[in-house]
From TrEMBL:
Native organism taxonomy: Bacteria, Pseudomonadati, Pseudomonadota, Alphaproteobacteria, Sphingomonadales
Domain PABS: 219-454
Stated name of the protein: Polyamine aminopropyltransferase
Physiological role: Catalyzes the irreversible transfer of a propylamine group from the amino donor S-adenosylmethioninamine (decarboxy-AdoMet) to putrescine (1,4-diaminobutane) to yield spermidine.
Gene coding for it: speE
Subcellular location: Cell membrane
Chief location: membrane
One Gene Ontology biological process: spermidine biosynthetic process
InterPro entries: PABS, PABS_CS, SAM-dependent_MTases_sf, Spermi_synthase
Transmembrane portions of the chain: 12-38, 50-71, 83-107, 113-134, 146-169, 175-195, 207-224
């Protein structure tokens, strides 16, 4: 067996130190990837377009790790002391990263500068870790064994992080708590090494720094809910009454002066002051053109508001509602105030809730439906953009009865006209007849929908008398488009081009400045 390792500064390391150091490889690898995933997820949540955000965050992080590895060559002595201090710094920056980014987002002018500066700082520090550990352990293991052990623990740590983050950490702890927990893991490595070296190294200042960081992380963990509320109140500028992260999205409900608002990943889904305008425009032009809408399919709409409108029609025998997130269904079915908002639609015996990915569900389904309501969030990223593609619409068209009618929420024809008309072009490419219409919803502005069917769509519509917004005249007016919203040439949105996601980001980005 090789002689005791040299602890960087020339002091002999205790025999147990190698075990602690190898275990620390697992911990630091897990923590490093968690901080990377936190930054990418937060960037997607706050800035949109998850593909772009994850790509740029991961690229910046890996580049920074390379810079850190290169800088490690300039550490010529005292590797153990440097490693301990790196762990303390990573714990402070990484542990507070999620909370800090949430709190700073509404306060700084160019959030991307703060985001990528933090990613660079953490990446450089993480890049220092493995080279320092290899140098510290080099006298205890043969080179081949050393590299094998270090890389094995490093890759295992990456696997642990990649599984824990989406399956356990985000849905159970949330992003802010996750940052604090793994910051504590990093500083725990530093403290364990300092304790092991207490007879050989002067550890007073480093131990004090580690304990200060530990205290701050524990305080952050204890006040995580308050920090989350503070950041979301600043972000939404409205009192937050409910907030939860699920494996699929961040659900936030705010309330001001009796107005409840639902946000998914920071994007407004409805306001109780005017949601009836949106949902009447979404549902009734379809039901009013179907002679016998016995079987109705709703894709999306987990809040139950579209289902509420559908179930008001006594001709409807059964509604199948397909929504990805079971937490939405639970929230809007079991919370009295929200269930009252949707008239207990999600508890109706005429409705079946299916929690599944709609893209996969429609491909496997064989039933035909007389009316189909497609109410997905806007195509802000590719995972949503696939639900607006020709491939998806072909599968939906297969489920639409020969005399059936469907409609798709299609973003604003005023703010994003190219994106809006891309939906019509894509539905037509899928073999359907498409016809656009729009309604003014104060919370959103001018909002667009696209109706489609196997047959030409006529003007004859039967509307019930109890609607708050739509009557025959208002319904006819929705199909008239002034020049600034008129149809224009647009591409077909396909899985291999995702043209809609790009045009949506461009048009809304220009509007939001």
């Amino acid at each position: 067996m090789p002689e005791a390792a040299t602890a960087g500064g020339g002091d002999a390391a205790p025999a147990s130190l190698a075990v602690i150091l190898l275990a620390s490889v697992l911990v630091v690898a897990t923590c490093g990837l968690i901080y990377e995933l936190l930054a990418g997820t937060l960037a997607s949540y706050l800035l949109g377009d998850s593909v772009t955000q994850f790509s740029t965050v991961i690229g910046t992080y890996l580049f920074a790790m390379g810079v850190g590895s290169w800088l490690s060559r300039h550490v010529r002595s005292g590797e153990m002391a440097v490693f301990v201090r790196v762990e303390i710094l990573i714990a402070a920056l990484g542990g507070w990263s999620a909370a800090g980014l949430f709190l700073l987002f509404p306060l700084v002018g160019d959030f991307r500068v703060v985001l990528y500066a933090l990613v660079m700082a953490i990446g450089v520090l993480v890049g220092l870790e493995i080279p320092l550990l290899i140098r510290i352990l080099r006298h205890r293991f043969a080179f081949r064994e050393l590299v094998s052990n270090v890389l094995t623990y490093d890759y295992v740590g990456a696997l642990i992080a990649s599984l824990l983050f989406p399956l356990v950490l985000v849905p159970q702890l949330g992003m802010i708590r996750t940052g604090f927990v793994f910051g504590l893991a990093n500083v725990g490595v530093a403290i364990a090494l300092l304790v092991a070296l207490r007879r050989q190294e002067r550890i007073g200042r480093d131990m004090t720094a580690a304990l200060i960081v530990t205290t701050s992380l524990l305080a952050g963990l204890f006040f995580a809910d308050r920090l989350q509320r503070m950041s979301e109140v600043a972000f939404y500028n409205e009192p937050v009454v409910y907030a939860r992260s699920t494996p699929y999205q961040r659900i936030v409900i705010t309330r001001r002066d009796g107005d409840l608002r639902l946000y998914l990943n920071g994007n407004l889904q409805f306001s109780t002051r005017d949601e009836y305008r949106y949902h009447e425009a979404l549902v009734w032009p379809v039901l009013g053109r179907v002679a016998q809408p016995r079987q109705v399919l709703i894709l999306g709409g987990g809040d139950g508001l579209a289902a509420r409108e559908v179930l008001r029609d006594a001709r409807v025998g059964h509604v199948t509602l397909v929504d990805l997130d079971p937490e939405m269904a639970r929230l809007f079915r079991d919370t009295p105030q929200l269930a009252q908002l949707n008239s207990q639609a999600l508890a109706s015996p005429r409705l079946t809730m299916v929690n599944a990915d709609a893209f996969r569900w429609v491909r496997a389904e064989q039933r035909r439906f007389d009316a189909i309501i497609v109410d997905f969030p806007d195509p802000t990223e590719f995972s949503l953009g696939k639900l607006y593609t020709e491939s998806f619409y072909r599968e939906v068209a297969r489920l639409l009865a020969p005399q059936g009618v469907m409609t798709v929420q299609s973003t604003s024809p005023l703010i994003a006209p190219r994106s809006y008309w891309t939906v019509a072009s894509t539905l037509e490419a899928a073999g359907l007849t498409a016809r656009g219409y729009h309604a003014y919803v104060p919370s959103f502005g001018e909002w667009g929908f696209t109706m489609a069917a196997h047959q030409p769509l006529g003007d004859v519509v039967r509307l019930p008398p109890h609607l708050r917004f739509l009557d025959a005249a208002a319904e006819r007016a929705m199909f008239d488009f002034p020049p600034d919203m008129a149809r224009r040439p647009t591409p077909v949105n396909r899985l291999d081009n995702q043209a809609l996601v790009r045009s949506f980001a461009e048009e809304w980005g220009r509007y939001e400045g």
